Amino acid sequence: MLKNILSISGRPGLYRLVSRGKNMLIVEAVATGKRTPAYAHDKVISLGDISIYTEDGEDTLLSNVLESLRQKTEGNTVDIKALGDDAQIREFFGEVLPEFDRERVYTTDIKKLLSWYNILIGAGITDFATDTEATEETAETKE
Fold this sequence. Notes:
alpha+beta, two-stranded antiparallel sheet, five-stranded antiparallel β-sheet
């Protein structure tokens, strides 16, 4: 599911991939539904390709972090301002992903992740499983 959700550098929010054109992508804002082009010079990254640094050296996929966050908040949005200062935000994130690398993951990264989570939950997107995980679950169900 997260493979089709994109972050575009320099633009606020998240975007859903709608179509591909010549030298551009047609994207739709997740929050508003407004369609715009994303050109080849824009830095576009799929949320499915993002991972979080961990202390053990094996990075954790963003989909797993979002799923842990959804379980912790019981599917509700996170009030980032109510969390308080940077130390409290890092402490909250430590409850979601205890093994995150505290030196390489900055508070701004955590805030961006929390805002992405809020956008996804607000748009009704709660299926954070990766395509391979979904395939494995389907295979297990069939057996």
